[in-house]
Specification:
Blueprint lengths: L23 H4 L1 E7 L4 H10 L3 E3 L2 E7 L4 E7 L4 E6 L4 H5 L4 E4 L1 E2 L2 E2 L1 E2 L1 H13 L15 E4 L8 E7 L3 E8 L2 E8 L3 E3 L1
Antiparallel strand pairs: 1-5, 1-6, 1-9, 2-5, 3-4, 7-8, 10-11, 10-14, 11-12, 12-13
């Protein structure tokens, strides 16, 4: 009997097989793992050997040597690998050589949406020499909120901290001042 079927009790015989839990696939989440420097590919391989679904986004870069031109694959995100695991498997990931820890956000492992992983995969399949540039936020910059109750609202940044930006949202003749996570802001 599936452990997720609460309240349904039935007698089972010893020879009867347990039914697979359908909720298991839904409880797997993509998490970011911080690895030792220059160990991204090795960590990805070691996790795969353990049977853990992992993804190390590789950027195709053309390198020129004195005698030839070669296509080299380098990790897109330095010291990061993505893993799709259940909460119970996190210890096995952490015990993998080269893995330092999970990336945390608000005291919990940072969860990456499936569609974001797919977007990275499609982008890297289509393009070479991809560059990553973090979005800079500065006071007086116009921004648009991309998540939360203020989603799609525009405002002006008053102050920027490490993870939070203080944004003035001018609507209805009033100025609302909200402290919004930087990840939920984009240039307007």
């Amino acid at each position: 009997m599936c452990s997720c079927q609460l309240g349904q009790k039935r007698k089972t015989h010893v020879t009867e097989r347990a039914e697979p839990c359908k909720a298991t696939a839904m409880s797997k989440k993509w998490l970011a793992v911080y690895s030792r420097p220059r160990w991204e590919k090795k960590v990805d391989r070691l996790l795969a050997e353990k049977g853990i679904e992992s993804y190390c986004p590789l950027n195709k870069i053309r390198r020129k040597w004195s005698d030839r031109l070669k296509l080299v694959e380098e990790p897109l995100f330095k010291s990061y690998v993505f893993v799709k695991v259940e909460d119970a498997d996190r210890t096995a990931v952490r015990m993998t050589p080269g893995v330092l820890n999970f990336v945390y956000w608000d005291g919990k492992p940072a969860v990456i949406r499936e569609k974001e992983i797919q977007a990275i995969r499609r982008f890297l399949d289509e393009y070479e020499n991809v560059e990553i540039i973090p979005m800079d936020l500065s006071p007086d910059q116009r921004v648009k909120v991309t998540g939360g109750v203020l989603m799609d609202q525009e405002g002006k940044i008053l102050r920027v901290n490490r993870k939070i930006a203080k944004v003035a949202i001018d609507s209805l003749g009033y100025i609302l001042i909200a402290h919004i996570e930087r990840t939920k802001l984009t240039s307007a």
